[in-house]
Amino acid sequence: MNHPTPHAALARRPLPPALRDALQAGFGDRFSTSAGVCEHHGRDESPFPPALPDGVVFAHSTGEVAEVARLCNQYSVPLIPYGAGSSLEGHLLAVAGGISLDLSQMNKVLAIQPEDLTVTVQPGVTRKQLNQEIKDTGLFFPIDPGADASLGGMCATRASGTNAVRYGTMRENVLALTVVTADGRVIRTGTHARKSSAGYDLTRLFIGSEGTLGIITEVTVRLYPQPEAISAAVCAFPSMSSAVQAVIQTIQLGVPIARVEFVDALAIRAINRHDSLTLPEMPHLFFEFHGTEAGVREQAETVQQITAEHGGQDFEWATRPEDRSRLWNARHTAYFAMLQLKPGCRAVTTDVCVPISRLADCVAETEKDLVASSLPCPIVGHVGDGNFHVAILVDPDKPEEMAEAEDINRRIVERALSMGGTCTGEHGVGLHKMDFLVREHGEDALDLMRVIKHALDPNGILNPGKIFRAVRGPAG
Ligand SMILES: Cc1cc2nc3c(=O)[nH]c(=O)nc-3n(C[C@H](O)[C@H](O)[C@H](O)COP(=O)(O)OP(=O)(O)OC[C@H]3O[C@@H](n4cnc5c(N)ncnc54)[C@H](O)[C@@H]3O)c2cc1C
User: Fold this and answer.
1) 87 CB less than 6 Å from ligand 1?
2) Locate the FAD-binding PCMH-type domain: which residues (predicted)?
């Protein structure tokens, strides 16, 4: 038996025949109701069982997206934008059925503006594709979730990754959007200027809205010059807390480090097996430094001194580009490596983020808590931001394992909230973090979110049942 979806499915009704006919007429074989296609679009990377849409449309333009929105709005049918399908919290599950709108074929880089350090793309462009296509400009786009996510999906989840400590998250790096509203209007938010005080910041409203307020069809993001020098290193520590203390001191001293990632001993074991590395099975920090040759040297020397003070072993350097990519590739695929620690498992992934001053306490208390767990719980983290993930490895067919994982997750979130942190640093709310939002924001703030949702989507068609319940309830 699969563990049930964390929130009961909403009422479903079959697709109105007139809508089906209109989609068939408008999209031909780019509208599919086949079981395989619906199955693929009714799941994500979470451990929750799929909840299938009734049909999938593959859009090719903003005009087509607007047409689908108008039709779904006319018939009050749920509409769920779909990017690369890599979200982790049940975001894509069609809990009320409806249409999944797949944007992956809208994958053109529309305009590169190297002199402004910006690029405009369609939402289906993935982060790796973007960096490949702009390689020759000497610029790069730094935001790198572990999966090869789409820029539209990354906007919608307010994603970040290993580079956020230096370059920020999607919140800081999106300048402008084209958005299709629930009733099919096309609006533009923001401009290509680096800053603006012109009215409410609608761009930021859509960043992190998880497909519940509008469908993003164009994105303009900031780019950065490829650094003159890059060097990467790994360093082993006697304990998690000594590694975390080293990171906190590095950040508090203002060292402009590009990446600093924590990987615990169990995650190192997984990575070693998966990527044929031979790192000692101890807690590690992975570092990357960007800048001029002299700047990188200076940053590295400062960080080496800090790590030595906290019991860190010698730095193991990866200076050649191929060694650096091997190291960071291992970090990026850590999630899949960790899944192999328990064959057939799925991961309940925690995602708390706390103020940097509370990170050591939060990690230490979490480590103590996990000792009693019967489940493997490797930990990795973007610790420079105060954000870490426990991958709680469960057999989703064993309710007792799912219950234990949810208990651990709840305790971690409560701990982070009590320290002034958040239940989700980067993955978003989806279905899985809904119950924590009242605790984090309060009922009145959630009511305000409902007012915004209702104003933008009065028929409640856009990704229904996500982020919060439509009406105030015991758990929000
Ligand atoms: C191995 C692994 C590692 C990961 N590491 C990170 C990490 O380091 N940092 C991080 O932030 N996340 C990480 N994630 C989570 C995931 O990659 C991000 O949430 C990503 O931003 C999702 O993008 P996507 O294109 O896959 O979106 P999808 O999963 O397709 O969709 C996610 C949400 O966005 C909405 N959406 C998608 N496209 C649009 C659009 N064009 N307009 C409006 N709404 C839209 C969907 O309706 C859904 O609610 C990781 C996931 C995996 C599997």
Assistant:
1) yes
2) 49-226
Question: Cα separations (Å) of 294 from 225, 291, 313?
Answer: 17, 8, 23
Give the three-class secondary structure for 113: strand
Q: Quick check: CB of 98 below 6 Å from ligand 1? A: no
Is the pLDDT at 159 greater than 70? The verdict is: yes
Cα–Cα dist 40/131, whole Å: 27
Averaged pLDDT, 137-165: 97
Distance of CA 195 from the midpoint of ligand 1 (Å) = 26
Architecture of domain 109-225: 2-Layer Sandwich (3.30)
CA distance 32 to 39: 11
pLDDT digits over 246-300, tens only? 999 999 999 999 999 999 999 999 999 999 999 999 999 999 999 999 999 999 9
Written as six digits, the tokens of 187 are 């609006």
Query: Does residue 166's CB lie within 6 angstroms of at least one atom of ligand 1?
Result: no
How sure is the predictor about 3, in pLDDT bands with cuts at 50, 70 and 90?
Answer: very low
* Closest alpha carbon to 42 in 98, 126, 105: 98
| Tens-place pLDDT, residues 12-27 | 899 999 999 999 999 9
Is CATH 3.30.70.2190 the classification given to domain 229-335? yes
| pLDDT single digits (tens) 392-420 | 999 999 999 999 999 999 999 999 999 99
The residue written with tokens 């983290």 in the block is 381
Nearest 5°: phi and psi at 292?
Answer: -80, 170
Q: What is the mean pLDDT of the chain?
A: 95
Domain 342-418 has CATH 3.30.70.2740: yes
Q: Is 154 in the pocket of ligand 1 (CB under 6 A)?
A: yes
pTM of this structure: 0.96
| Annotated domain spans of the chain | 17-102, 109-225, 229-335, 342-418
Is residue 210 in contact with ligand 1, taking CB distance under 6 Å?
yes
Ligand 1 center from residue 149 Cα (angstroms): 6
- Residue among 68, 143, 157 to mutate when testing ligand 1 (max atoms within 8 A of CB): 157
What is the best residue among 40, 86, 160 to mutate for testing ligand 1's pocket, by most ligand atoms within 8 Å of CB?
A: 86
Distance CA 296, CA 257 (A): 9
Separation CA 418–CA 413 (nearest Å): 9
Contacts of 133 (CB under 8 A, 6+ apart): 109
Q: Which residues contact 279 (CB under 8 A, 6 or more apart)?
A: 234, 236, 268, 271, 272
